[in-house]
Write a structure and sequence with these properties.
By secondary structure, this protein is an alpha/beta fold. The protein is built from 9 helices and 13 strands. Helices cover 40% and strands 16% of the residues. The chain has a 6-stranded parallel β-sheet, sandwiched between helices. Strands 11-8-13 form a 3-stranded mixed β-sheet. The chain binds NADP nicotinamide-adenine-dinucleotide phosphate.
Length: 294
């Protein structure tokens, strides 16, 4: 099976690079240098030359706040480029595994979002990702879309790494305590995609839209506390005081969903793969970051 991964330099792309070649040694990884998704007319010829059987799209325009003022770029990468990839897949019988976001929801629910819940994005980023999902469905290609949330890992930029950095620099940290979500370890997401690949390979894939995120919901404040507890255990410097604040006290250009809890049970049922365990992942991430470089 010829697997092509787009977005090799992102968090998920790097985690896929860590684990996928062990299972599929011939998987090919492309970053922006190999395929710039802003160059829409170049997508189909590049993919045709590669002739993959499966494409994993780990790339996206993910600058949530900048998207509010740069919506054209967000829609180019998250909708129009995705549509080009999906159309190529439909025409050439290629399977597409794509990643989307909890930000397609407005966060006004009080119970975990199932795949049947009605999306209503409140940010440009969320709307552009939803448009990408719709383009995939409209293309008619065989696809699995995994909506995920609050992704963190030892790679790239994320809340986990920001907390470790700020925790080493400041005595007091103020963290939003009234947004609830499901932290997801990017490496767990990479393994979830491998579970899907195995089903694609043996012809038993249940195509469609799924939620895949952390199995326990938590506020950013509680997530930070868990990070600092694990960091303190291995002797890292952590802040003396961590205080919960409200979203109002930490305004951002793009609104965030207040309740961003994804129900991953449909995916677990269909693919026999558990939700991400962010508690153990914090320790795994700390170990990965503290490994001496080779
Ligand atoms: N991070 C989260 O908390 C979160 C939450 C929910 C859903 N998701 C979704 O999960 C997926 C993976 O996210 P992530 O955290 O791994 O994102 P990320 O670290 O920001 O990586 C995204 C990758 O997309 C690439 N990319 C952006 N524009 C491109 C272009 N024009 N051409 C080619 N490549 C381009 C970037 O390339 P460069 O490195 O060259 O910039 C980057 O490597 C995305 O679909 C995202 O929407 C993420």
């Amino acid at each position: 099976m010829n697997i092509l991964v787009l977005g090799r330099n992102g968090q998920l792309g790097q985690c896929l690079l860590d684990v996928l070649p062990r299972v599929y040694p011939n998987a090919v990884f492309w970053g922006r240098q190999q395929l710039d998704l802003e160059q829409l007319e170049g997508i189909e010829p590049r993919l045709s030359a590669q002739q993959p059987d499966v494409i994993i799209n780990a790339s996206a325009y993910t600058a949530v706040d900048q998207a509010e003022t740069n919506s054209a770029l967000a829609y180019t990468v998250n909708q129009h480029a995705v549509a080009q990839v999906a159309d190529y897949c439909a025409k050439n019988d290629v399977a597409l595994l794509h990643v989307s976001t909890d930000y397609v929801f407005d966060g006004s629910s009080q119970r975990p979002y199932a795949e049947t819940a009605e999306p209503n994005p409140s940010s440009v980023y969320g709307a552009s990702k939803l448009a990408g999902e719709k383009a995939i469905a409209a293309s008619g290609c065989r696809h699995v879309i995994l909506r995920t949330a609050w992704v963190f890992s030892e790679h790239g930029q994320n809340f986990f790494k920001t907390m470790l950095r700020l925790g080493g620099e400041r005595d007091t940290l103020r963290i939003v305590g009234d947004q609830i979500g499901c932290p997801t370890y990017a490496r767990d997401l990479a393994f979830a995609l491998i579970s899907v690949l195995k089903r694609v390979e043996n012809g038993t894939c249940s195509w469609g839209l799924y939620h895949y995120a952390g199995g326990r919901d938590v506020s950013w404040f509680e997530f930070a506390e868990a990070i600092f507890a694990a960091a303190a255990d291995i002797g890292l410097t952590v802040p003396k005081h961590v205080m919960a604040i409200t979203t109002e006290e930490y305004p951002t250009p793009a609104p965030r969903p207040a309740w961003s809890v994804l129900d991953s049970s449909l995916f677990t049922h269909a693919f026999g793969h558990p939700a991400s365990n962010w508690q153990t992942a914090i320790e795994a991430c700390l170990r990965a970051l503290n490994q001496p470089s080779q």
